[in-house]
Design goal:
By secondary structure, the protein is an alpha/beta fold. Helices cover 47% and strands 12% of the residues. The protein has 25 helices and 19 strands. The strands form five sheets. Strands 1-4-3-2-5 form a five-stranded mixed beta sheet. A five-stranded parallel beta sheet has the order 7-8-9-6-10, with helices on both faces. A four-stranded antiparallel beta sheet has the order 16-17-18-19, covered by helices on one side. Helix 13 (391-401) packs across helix 15 (425-441). The protein is elongated.
């Protein structure tokens, strides 16, 4: 696609990215012209240059009604003002005024039996045009009025005997009713608005406006390269369908995105719509079914009708399992509203024509509960699996989420990807967001590796609860418990490597041992599962050997170990006694739902044998853990002591503790701290020498304390510096510019 089209897509506009057929297919050109004309039939064209908007009759009616009200109000105000300046004369007063010559002109209205005109209220001002005052009077006798006015020819007299036309009278009488009907029509149209209203039950609630259309492209998606390649074919077909039609190829009518939650299924669908630049109808599966019967089927029909009008287009149904579950699972035979909606959906998918270029995309994490009629060829022709990313995919996803985040130089995204096996795209996005929040909470300007590590542990085990107060006995028990987990896992070859040990409570756990594989594993071996069992029981075994009594702290370990052992026996066929056979199967009872229970398709004797095998696996794992801990009792005491002192060990410290190289690690740690202290001391001495040269500081002491660590710094006579830390001494050469002895100092002072 050209750069111009890409710029238009970024601006949120529809783009007809297709090209005319090389053979000059007029039908294709007419279809594309229609697509441009009907881009947005609800809200009008996507931009002001896309063509004239459809007239909004509701707005016109409303404005006309407002205009009528304003005109009536103004007319009434004018009439009221005129009536205020008009004098009401009685019939006798009018006759007297005529006889006295005070009336200038008069008009008789036969329809209302009224006389209106002008007269002089004061007799001495007769003839003064400025003194005339309008008047009105009532006169019932037409003949006598004519005689009266005939006897006074100086008065201008006119008789209005005209009558109001029939249509005017009819219109006047029906005008209130017409206004009422107009108001009712307006509100009915308002309520039936497809965007939502009291009467718009059967209209689709899909988001179709330009503002709601996704702006995502394939560059914003990572970790699922195979799925992206599958969907690029869809995008290419929408861009240039003639290329495929010339070869007789048919694009899949439906594409089903399948995968665990948080792997990016919805994001992929949005990327297809953003790349293709076509109308995109987005709705969730739960948006079809309401409390009224027949609403779901009506919304399905309306959705597909709008999509066909704007073809080529994409319909995306998120969480389709909400409406696409297997039929016949409802109470009373299953003839419920959801099944009617599903039936209509099946009919609409069958009604697709080849030239319409309408593609249905859906996402679900439960493909096993979908109706088989949905999954057959001709409906959902293609299933695209969006699985959890591997290590390379996780690194790419972390790079996308880190685009707008300032990272420190110590952050290694490749290392973070290795430490997060099993994380989905949503988990990684949450990890980077939590890291940014933690860095802001600590007042840092950049996100460091410490924040990312802490956020990873928060996502796995929960936030740390350092404020929890525990007794010394409980802390000792937890220290031995976690040491047992770690040591057993370290000693067994097939267990996951231990990365961190902590006795700081997190979430519901009073302590935790973090073990992660160095590489992604997609299969579990029997030996690895046996070693995992022993590692799970290592905490309880440590309590039995090194504590006064066992506690309830191993309840979760025992639960997980029992599930793993039973799965090995009944599901994986890893028991030699019972052989490679599956025992029990899911219960597909219609009225209870799927997988709510497991049918015991075996005899009571077999069930007893299964229980014996599970018990045997648990006991063997317990004995293996006991053997490991008994042979390494001294190391266990050391690990517990270190944990009680430091509370958390990770990295090199954890590896040294597990390898029983703790004293060696302490020596290296002391040397490293001495180097750091020496570097700090050198920097301090350099700064002191610069200030002494400017006579800003008094003469320095020979021995100082470095704040960063417990170290002594001695200044020797030759200008060199000796740093002493934990029995280790290191001498630094003299700082350049500092006098080496008193003679040189005096010489410099003389100069």
């Amino acid at each position: 696609m050209s750069e111009e089209n890409n710029d238009k897509k970024k601006a949120g506009k529809f783009v007809d990215a297709g090209k005319p057929d090389a053979k000059g297919d007029k039908r294709e050109e007419e279809r594309r012209a229609k697509m441009k004309e009907l881009l947005n039939p609800i809200d009008g064209p996507a931009d002001k240059n896309a063509g004239p908007r459809k007239p909004n009759w509701r707005s016109i009616l409303l404005y006309a009604l407002i205009l009528v009200v304003v005109v009536v109000a103004v007319g009434s105000a004018v009439q009221r003002q005129a009536n205020e300046n008009t004098v009401e004369l009685a019939t006798s007063e009018f006759v007297s005024a005529v006889e006295d010559g005070q009336v200038s002109e008069a008009t008789y209205v036969a329809m209302t039996y009224t006389i209106k005109g002008e007269y002089w209220p004061e007799a001495d001002k007769i003839g003064d045009e400025n003194a005339l005052v309008p008047f009105t009077s009532t006169y019932l006798g037409t003949d006598s009025l004519a005689e009266l006015m005939a006897s006074h020819p100086e008065v201008k007299y006119v008789a209005d005997v005209s009558t109001t036309p029939t249509w005017v009278s009819l219109l006047t009488s029906m005008l209130p009713m017409l206004i009422l009907i107009g108001v009712m029509v307006y509100f009915m149209n308002k309520f039936s608005d497809p965007t939502g209203g009291a009467m718009g039950f059967g209209k689709t609630k899909a988001q179709t406006t330009d503002a709601t259309r996704p702006k995502v492209c394939f560059d914003d998606v990572a970790g699922c390269d195979e799925a992206i390649e599958e969907l690029k074919e869809i995008k290419d077909y929408l861009d240039n369908p003639a290329k495929y039609q010339d070869l007789g190829a048919k694009i899949p009518h439906g594409v089903l995105l399948v995968g665990p939650p948080g792997t990016g299924k919805t994001l992929l669908a949005k990327a297809v719509a953003g790349e293709a630049g076509v109308p995109f109808f987005q709705i969730s599966g739960s948006g079809f079914v309401e409390m009224f019967v027949g609403v779901g089927a009506s919304r399905v029909r309306d959705l597909f009708a709008k999509a066909k009008e704007q073809a080529p287009s994409i319909i995306f149904i998120d969480e389709i399992d909400a409406v696409g579950r297997q039929r016949g699972t409802g109470v009373g035979g299953g003839h419920d509203e959801r099944e009617q909606t599903l039936n209509q959906l099946l009919v609409e998918m069958d009604g697709f024509e080849e030239h319409q270029s309408v593609i249905l995309m859906a996402a679900t994490n439960r493909p096993d509960v979908l109706d088989p009629a949905l999954l057959r060829p001709g409906r959902f022709d293609r299933q695209v699996t969006v699985d959890r990313p591997d290590v390379k995919g996780r690194e790419a996803i972390l790079g996308i989420h880190a685009r707008n985040k300032p990272l420190s130089t110590d952050v290694d995204l490749a290392r973070v990807a290795q430490l997060t096996p099993g994380f989905s795209g949503a988990d990684l996005g949450n990890l980077m967001n939590e890291s940014a929040l933690l860095a802001a909470r600590r007042g840092h300007e950049r996100i460091g590796m410490d924040e990312i590590t802490e956020s990873m542990e928060r996502c796995i085990a929960g936030p740390a609860r350092k404020s929890r107060v525990m007794t010394d006995t409980e802390r000792k028990t937890i220290a031995y418990h976690e040491s047992g987990h770690a040591l057993v896992g370290h000693m067994l070859a097939n267990a996951d490597p231990v990365k961190k040990i902590s006795i700081i409570p997190r979430g519901q756990a009073l302590g935790y041992t973090l073990s992660m594989p160095d590489e992604d594993h997609f299969l579990q071996t029997r030996n690895s599962m046996l070693d995992s069992l022993a590692m799970m029981l290592g905490g309880r075994t440590a309590e039995e050997l090194f504590c006064d009594d066992i506690t309830t702290g191993a309840s979760n370990d025992i639960e997980r170990a029992t599930k793993v052992a039973r799965s090995m026996v009944v599901s994986y066929g890893m028991c030699e006694e019972l052989g490679p056979q599956m025992y029990g199967e899911p219960n597909h009872e219609v009225f209870l739902g799927r997988d709510i229970a497991t049918q015991g398709n075996y005899s009571p004797e077999t069930a007893h044998r299964i229980d014996l095998e599970v018990s045997r696996l648990i006991k063997e794992a317990h004995e293996r853990a006991r053997k490991v801990l008994s042979e390494n009792a001294e190391q266990m005491h050391l690990m517990a002591t270190v944990l009680l002192e430091r509370e958390t060990v990770d990295g090199d410290a954890c590896q040294a503790l597990l390898d029983n190289r703790w004293q060696e690690y302490l020596a290296g740690e002391a040397e490293q701290k001495a180097k750091v202290a020496a570097a700090d001391a050198a920097k301090t001495a350099e700064e002191r020498a610069a200030k002494e040269a400017e006579n800003q500081l008094p003469e320095a002491e020979s021995v100082v304390k470095v704040d960063s660590c417990d170290a002594e710094v001695r200044t020797n006579a030759d200008g060199s510096t000796t740093v002493v830390y934990d029995g280790h001494a290191q001498t630094l050469p003299p700082v350049e510019g500092e006098p080496k002895d008193e003679a040189e100092a005096g010489e410099k002072k003389g100069e």
